[in-house]
Amino acid sequence: MFKRAALISGGCFLTFLLLDFTFPFRAEVDYSSQILAKDGTVIHTFLSGDDKWRLYADISEITPLLRKTLIHKEDKFFYYHPGINPLAMLRAAALNMVKGRRTSGASTITMQVVRLLEPRKRTYFNKILESFRALQLEFHYSKEEILLMYLNRVPYGGNIEGIKAASLLYFGKLPQLLSLAEIMALTIVPNRPSGLQPGRRNEELIQARNRWLLRFEKANLFDKNVIQDALREPLVIRRLAAPRLAPHFSQRLKKEFPDQKIVRSNLNLHLQRQIEGQVKNYINRLNGMNIHNAAVLVVNNETMAVEAYVGSADFFNPYDGGQVDGIRAVRSPGSTLKPLLYATAFDKGMLTPRSVVYDVPTNFAGYEPENFDQRFNGAVTAGFALSHSLNIPAVRILRDMGTAGLVGQLRKAGFRTVARQEKDLGLSMILGGCGVTLEELTRLFAVFSNKGKFRDLRYIQEHNNVRGSTLISEESSFLLNNILTQVTRPDLPTQFDNTYHLPRIAWKTGTSYGKRDAWSVGYNKKFTVGVWVGNFSGQGVPELSGANTATPLLFSVFNSLDYNSEKGWYTMPQNVALRKVCAVTGDIPSDFCSNQITDYYIMGVSSYQKCRHLKWVYTDKNGEMSYCTYCLPEKDYEKRALPDIAPELVAYYEIQKIPYPKLPPHNPACERVFHEGAPMIISPNDGSEYYIRKDEAPQLQLSCQAQSDAQEVFWYLNDKLFKKAGPQDVVFINPPLGRVKISCSDDKGRNTDIWIDVKRM
Predict the structure, then answer these.
(1) Half-sphere exposure of residue 651, counting CA atoms within 13 Å on the CB side?
(2) Would you state the pLDDT for residue 103?
(3) Interacting residues of 453 by C-beta distance below 8 A, sequence separation 6+
């Protein structure tokens, strides 16, 4: 008998395995996407593919109270049966036969899950099939997993399914925060989702809830006091709107992680709401100036977590492009890339903060940049040039470094548009002639705070925080931080001057060509904040500037975020030291450098070039005439240290009528021809093509930069003398058609030749 029973059982089990293999049960569910803040708050939800609010709840959100209430009501023997309850089925069948109609059901929670996943008509055959599917479900899944399937699919009226969706959309809270009375109400709704729909039939729902609570009291499931409190608790329930916070951020994460039911982000919800309010109020004040939008990104420098992400002033404003994500929009960066240029130059030993650079009108092979204020400052330090965002020194440094060097750095820093534009980028890229995003800029400035280490941004908690790669050295970062922390600079908003509201940060501003984009990116040890202000339409506004439009918002964010941070400030690395340099050039002092100042430098990297702002010159006793070694007399001469001024600086002094020490004219009787220091022709450009119209008399400008000892220059056209002029004089010619040779010689015999092609349009 026992053997026969064993054989029958074994045969049934093998048959079950065969059927299970042939007709597998697939418990695949299309859940709504939900974006969570760092603290677990649901900040945004999206409809599922079949337009349901079906939010996945994990086991941590199912409290013991919810579990106990549900199982006692729906299936007391849930943890003991294999998916079907034979005794309950026999009892229900007997009652239905006696009554002659269906009066009692015997569905377990597992069978209800099958019915939710594979809905069928109520027939006896389908009941058998449902029972088989329930056995399959129990065979492949644990009790906890089956309970979750039920709680995540159970209907609550309309297009709401699952305990989490019902809890959020009816009570505005997560399931783990529900009281017994609220749990009881939600537990009974699935039996009659239309008749007891929350928000519409609350009175019927309260009555049904109380009846079940009294049953629980009779069954001694909870203490009497707990039941009485639940009976007295009012039912405040209504259909609420689905969470729609941080819309740009949430839509981005949904697109980037389409297969994740729950995306756990690093967003700080309190900070996000605070900054959203600041941005909206700030733009409301700027609307009168025709400035309608802004974007702000906040990054935690220690973890690289994105803690606030505001893509526009008002996502729901269709008139000003509110749904455009300003953090990912490609815009012109203005001057915001200059810090990386200077930091790279520090690492290459090209500069130190006190190195002297020239801010004078310069023609870079046809490119003639100007400063924002259209003024020039002459000889300035590199630190001054960066803190005052001077354009000509930046272009000169980029020319000396090579655009490929800066593009390579930007590629390493993840600037995608720059990488695509690489072949078309020239010197203008440092003044905004390329495309960047606020995300890329903010991530770059976080490098300066993190001792030169580049790490990617962390939007979700599952992302590992990799160690990152070195973009610039720690020493270069320190030099840069000192410069960008200075407050005596033109991009300090006037209303923040000499005020306690100024946060202690390093920052850099930028304004794109045509005043279409205003940028301000700042950082301290804890946070990096990027701000963009402008119009998504690309319309320029005369009042728009990084200093006076974007920086006030940057300061406002930092004042509420981390004013005078306790994290301290950046300490000097071991490989950075102070040294004495010449105040005139920023180089190592020579014997004749009487005015010396201190300067930071990177040991073993920074240049050790000695100062040459003076040179030894032989003159007569009165200093009125100079000699070279070729014409040096036997007596009555002196050796003097006289200024050795660069030709471009001489040209600037002459144009601006600025007095400067000049070298005495060379001995006119000297017959020596000089070979070094020939005039540099800056207009026209060597090898260029010029097109002229038939109906116009062409006027081509000739200009040069000559040595300080040159008193006159001679212009030649196809080896024929055209005109004698001063070194700083501008000369115009009517060039002939064809290939034209242009020569410039100074009064020392030094000569330069260039060739151009003149064509008719």
Answers:
(1) 22
(2) 46
(3) 447, 467, 468, 469, 470, 471
- Long-range Cβ contact pairs of 564-568 (< 8 A, separation 24 or more): 564/503, 564/504, 565/504, 565/524, 565/525, 565/526, 565/527, 567/524, 567/525, 567/526, 568/525
pLDDT of residue 737: 86
Instruction: Give pLDDT < 70 ranges for the chain.
Output: 1-13, 15-23, 25, 27, 87-106, 463-467, 494-501, 563-567, 671, 673, 675, 695-698, 761
Give the pLDDT of residue 693: 73
CB 337 within 8 A of CB 410: yes
Cα–Cα nearest to 372, from 496, 554, 536, 548: 548
The b/e string for 256-275 (b: 16+ C-beta within 10 A; e otherwise) is ebeebbbbbbbbbbebbeeb
Q: At which residue do the structure tokens 């204020």 appear?
A: 373
Instruction: Tell me the torsion sign for CA atoms 300, 306, 311, 314.
Output: negative
| Pairing label, strands 689-692, 751-760 | parallel
Looking at residue 101, what is its pLDDT? 52
Q: What's the whole-model pTM score?
A: 0.85
Calpha distance 463→459 (Å, rounded): 8
Looking at residue 138, its pLDDT comes to 80
The total of other beta-carbon atoms located within 10 Å of residue 468's CB is 14
Cβ atoms 66, 154 nearer than 8 A: no
Q: Are 526 and 562 in contact (CB under 8 A)?
A: yes
* Backbone torsions φ then ψ of 717, nearest 5 degrees: -120, 110
- Residue pair 311/553 in contact (Cβ under 8 Å)? The answer is no
Selection from 131, 142, 145 nearest residue 88 by Cα: 131
Handedness of CA 464, 469, 474, 478 (dihedral sign): negative
What are the tens digits of pLDDT across the range 152-187? 989 888 889 999 999 999 999 999 999 999 999 898
Please tell me the distance from the alpha carbon of residue 448 to that of residue 451, in angstroms, as a whole number: 6
Say how far apart CA 13 and CA 496 lie, in whole Å.
81
Model pLDDT, residue 104? 47
